[in-house]
User: Fold these one by one.
Assistant:
Number 1:
Amino acid sequence: MARLRINTSDEVEKVVTDRLIQLMSMTGKLLFDIRNSKIVDSASNNVSSSESGPSLDYSRLTEEEKFILDAETEYSKRQNIIVSSMLKGRALMMEMLSEKTRSKKVAIRFVKPFGQFLGVDLSRYGPFLVEDIAVLPFENARSLIESGVATEIELAY
């Protein structure tokens, strides 16, 4: 109580307002996480099971939820392809998937200068200056991003 008497009403109001904003943000995040979890679980069950259980009503999803669900559905399909290929001994399919991964390119922007290097595809890249943009093999791009030399360029969806 003594602390309340010392603080002016503006200071108390600011503290209460900040806490309310924080609580509302946490509530919104929790609601989103719960709803998203239910949607993803429902979609995963539909993708992974051959039974025709209750299907997901896309018309009741927000555009943002559809965006997330699209990626989750693709993830589940990819898992099923890998597992099925392994169990059925489809070495050619596994090799095709490996080649697709090896040939994947990523757009990056350099935040630090970087010299010339030989990529995993045996092509020469660089040298690069700050703010240069390049499309590099996935493995090389990941290495540069993780070391803080570059950042990935997020392509507009």
Number 2:
Amino acid sequence: MAFVTTSAPASQIAPRIGRFLARPFVAFWNLLILMAESTPRMEAVRALNAQSDGDLAARGTTRADEVRRIFGDRIH
């Protein structure tokens, strides 16, 4: 004889409720990250990361100098 349970145990229901309640906060956090990553500074950082140290040396600059140029008014 087999027994069949049609309801989920409470231990499986609680995480679902937690994930459901956390959705607005996760969405808001993802929006903040999207906004931060879409700034011109981040575009410049992506372009800098795509360049090799040899390319930067050929231009007569270093990675640290470029970071200072990009974030000049934000870091000290």
